[in-house]
């Protein structure tokens, strides 16, 4: 029997007379008996049953999970209401729960104020990305009196809060209406975002990103060793032991300009030719991470023209950059993105009035970042498809349950 | 100067020569100097400034917050991007953050697995309540291939998970497209929901509700005593000291039938005449709470015909009831609602196929509840309007920022 608290089951030893016809795989049982030291080497304890009651029988013929079978992730994905009972998804969900608690603790322990940034917003953070519009159906024309969307980022709302509290964070769902069937994209996904006032340089932001990653990952490794082992044994054998190594070393830092030079000198040819001023593509990110030894790599100082208005102008030249940073990790690509924010009013003129107000009334140098929570789980566990690290995946043409 | 970590400011003592023209209320400053014991009785320490730098000036003429003024909550509500800098909202947001951490810790410490139940769902939990539909705008017809909505409750998804883990919880945003301008309703609000397998009776559910309330409230009282004091001093003087009393006693329990009897014998007349089989109205809830001495009261065993299909049939009669419970609190009304779920397949026939599957494959007696997080904050702090206990309130005709 297994109560879902770990991969480990408790062996119940019962006299044949206690056997029930409906005592099948998948059924829910209540067993009373004595917990004793087991004579077998495979288990420490076992339960000598005195009574067995089948609380909820399970029809094994129609139950899609089979005993002692390792079902492929694609197979169990068809059963969003039952796949949590498989070993792999059970382990994943326990890890996800511990990682969630670890993220809250990390920020809490470091004096951050948690903010519930809104899900519905009248504001499109980056002007980029496909938005889900809401509250405009026939009978509810303009519920909010203005066009309203599902949030793509809590950043602007966190910036508001960074004017009142020194450090703030949010951890909630964000949305993209992208018609993508990629193994890295979902329509609904979770993002950790933080904003820090009185930053001095990008170093301040990178330090928090790295500390967050390492603290949460250490927590997961120590709280769910067997659950993590399952992934590193059966799903991503190449990950075994790598994570522990990575936690011991400082993450690498290269500039965008250095990254472009590395790509230009690469022996391989890319579909997108690397060129200063162009966005790094997935193939480029992969190569950079490999080039650096399959470890997490910060890429800093991106071209001014590539990045949104709120990122801080480095006032350099002739290759004009902003103080932006991306954290690239093996197998996943971009895990975190952040920047110093432009705190100087003249640099922001002709922008949003409210955004300007924040600069007008006691502006401070600040910066922040976001980390995709599903991508984080994909990376540490080596899970190929993002649909397997979220309880109920939503993507184009799919919204089961 | 104040860094947002508490209501307490640090007094900076400076020579007039350090005075800057732009050193105004609301500006962001960097002060270097010596932290010394203060000669004044009002403060323990003070900072003897050696240098003062105005990092971000603040135009006091247009800044809507004024020094040493206690602005009404209605006034600051107009400035969603600046109100967090007022004492009251600052205190509220610190309390909200501690309560959030307290909720996660409570469940974590009691062995619950945290689940991110989906925001977008193809499933209308109760068939009740107005739904926000999404992904059906002109250019994105049927993004999900099926009608999709913003969630009204994570209950069904938690029930799925309660089949894999013994205890699960979620804490996230939920939505109602109600055209209400009530001080108790928002279009977007936060709900804590829990689901417990192997329940024996409603008592199991009530115990968790009561423990959750008391544990989180104790945490808030001990972590933010000054912030809570601000509310109990200026916003809701009647609350002062009451909460500490309530934490010491068991919550009261009455049945729905008893509640109706109490209402029938009330000396006052109600707009809605109390009658067995009719829903309790706000006026009824208020009276019941007053009748019980302005303390939290559980009302249990509601009429079968009033409640949704998934609540467990008590198989009683002639007044046929289900094992449902509401927790009523002073000033707010319904804070939590929960029930035992109908785990018996025959009672659920002709319902949702997936819901039936959960009963078919290893069904167990279980139950759960939800607690409105904003209503919780309204109650413990005595805040009249729900719009003042959430960072960015959304309601009909309003979606600022």
From TrEMBL, chains A, B:
One MF term in the entry's GO annotations: ATP binding
Enzyme class: ligase
Gene Ontology CC terms: mitochondrion
Pfam families reported for this sequence: tRNA-synt_2 (PF00152)
InterPro entries, A to Z: Aa-tRNA-synt_II (IPR004364), aa-tRNA-synth_II (IPR006195), aa-tRNA-synth_II/BPL/LPL (IPR045864), Asn-tRNA-ligase (IPR004522), Asp/Asn-tRNA-synth_IIb (IPR002312), NA-bd_OB-fold (IPR012340)
Keywords assigned: Aminoacyl-tRNA synthetase, ATP-binding, Ligase, Nucleotide-binding, Protein biosynthesis
Any one GO biological process: asparaginyl-tRNA aminoacylation
Keyword presence, Nucleotide-binding: yes
Record-stated family: Belongs to the class-II aminoacyl-tRNA synthetase family.
Protein name as it appears in the record: asparagine--tRNA ligase
Gene that encodes it: NARS2
């Amino acid at each position: 029997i297994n109560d879902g608290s770990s991969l480990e089951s408790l062996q119940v030893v019962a006299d044949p007379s206690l056997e029930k016809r409906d005592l099948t795989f998948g059924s829910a049982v209540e067993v009373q008996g004595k917990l004793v030291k087991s004579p077998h080497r495979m288990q420490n304890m076992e339960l000598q049953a005195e009574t067995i009651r089948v609380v909820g029988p399970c029809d094994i013929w129609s139950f899609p999970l089979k005993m002692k079978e390792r079902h492929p992730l694609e197979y169990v994905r068809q059963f969003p209401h039952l796949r949590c009972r498989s070993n792999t998804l059970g382990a994943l969900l326990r890890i996800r729960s511990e990682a969630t608690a670890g993220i809250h603790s990390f920020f809490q322990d470091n004096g951050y104020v948690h903010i519930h940034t809104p899900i519905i917003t009248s504001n499109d953070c980056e002007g980029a990305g496909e938005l889900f519009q809401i509250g405009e159906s026939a009978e509810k024309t303009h519920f909010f009196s203005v066009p309203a969307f599902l949030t793509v980022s809590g950043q602007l709302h966190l910036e508001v809060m960074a004017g009142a509290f020194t450090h703030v964070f949010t951890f909630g769902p964000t949305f993209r209406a992208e018609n993508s069937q990629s193994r890295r994209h979902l329509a609904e996904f979770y993002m950790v975002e933080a904003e820090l006032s009185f930053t001095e340089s990008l170093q301040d932001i990178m330090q928090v990103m790295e500390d967050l990653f390492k603290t949460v990952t250490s927590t997961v490794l120590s709280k769910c060793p067997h659950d993590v082992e399952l992934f590193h044994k059966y799903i991503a054998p190449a990950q075994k032991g790598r994570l522990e190594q990575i936690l011991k070393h400082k993450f690498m830092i290269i500039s965008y300009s250095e990254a472009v030079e590395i790509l230009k000198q690469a022996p391989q040819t890319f579909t997108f030719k690397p060129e200063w001023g162009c966005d790094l593509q997935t193939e480029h990110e992969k190569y950079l991470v490999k080039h650096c030894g399959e470890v997490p790599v910060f890429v800093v100082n991106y071209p001014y023209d590539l990045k949104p208005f709120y990122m801080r102008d480095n006032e350099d030249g002739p290759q004009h950059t902003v103080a932006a940073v991306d954290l690239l990790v093996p197998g996943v690509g971009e895990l975190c993105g952040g920047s110093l924010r432009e705190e100087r009013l003249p640099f922001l003129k002709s922008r949003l009035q409210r955004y300007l107000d924040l600069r007008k009334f006691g502006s401070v140098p600040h910066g922040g970042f976001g980390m995709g929570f599903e991508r984080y789980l994909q990376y540490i566990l080596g899970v190929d498809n993002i649909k397997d690290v979220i309880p109920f995946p939503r993507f184009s043409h799919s919204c089961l349950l």
